[in-house]
Amino acid sequence: MRPRKRDKPSMASAVPRVLPVLPLRHSVFFPQQALPLSVGREGSVRAVEDALRGEGLIIVVAQTDGAVDTPTEKDLRWTGTVAKVLKVIALADGTRSVLTEGIGRGRLLSILQSEPFLRAVVQDVPEKPSTRVEAEAIVTSLKSLFRRAAELSPNLTEDQVSMILTVEDPAAITDMITSMLPVGPDEKQQILEAFNVDERLQKVMLMLTKLVQRLELGSKIQSEVQDGITKSQREYVLREQLKAIRKELGEDEGNVEQS
Length: 259
What we know:
- By secondary structure, the protein is α+β, with helices and mostly antiparallel strands.
- It contains six helices and six strands.
- Strands 1-3-4-5-6 form a five-stranded mixed barrel.
- Helix 2 runs parallel beside helix 6 (197-248) and helix 4 packs parallel to helix 6 (197-248).
- The longest helix is centred in the C-terminal third of the chain and has 52 residues, at 197-248.
- Residues 1-10 have low confidence and may be disordered.
């Protein structure tokens, strides 16, 4: 998910273009991501092959229902990420591992075909840069919150924290953080559809704050439960020790003298 240093294809053109569509069942793909995507459905494999016959560009979109095996236009989110297919590896199980790099946001304008793979007219979506004077402070707060989330969540790693700490650009850090967070695809899609960076900063701040609060509450509950278990175990051990002492003294519970 680390941004790559080499030059990326330009997203400057506002002229709609025709691109193959790669639907994802249960995830959302973001700009700033470079990930191997597992591709197994015939239509998706053909979409990747079509991309490679051209400039290697494809638009990656989330499905509204991941259970749909052959999605049509009604099963797709219409905002996605225009991406570059960097490498394709055929795996032994017949699927493909497709190394894909997100370039920028894109919107489907119309579906031209659904078979043998999805192809659509795509409009690049330019971002509205941040104009807030406090954007730098918000970025600092996001980094702090992300570090706290990583301390509490087994799904986040120190490597991810280190990666986030190096990012200063508000647009990039919001996308990177959202792509890493253990939240549902609907929440991630809301961030992908926030084209205004100031709006996105606020949305990610709220999402991350709520996540940290949930994680802290869960950690507190787990700690209290563990303390209760530890207390019960300690009392059990003491009771067993007391029984052993009484037995040693000839004071079995059934033969204890009454005073």
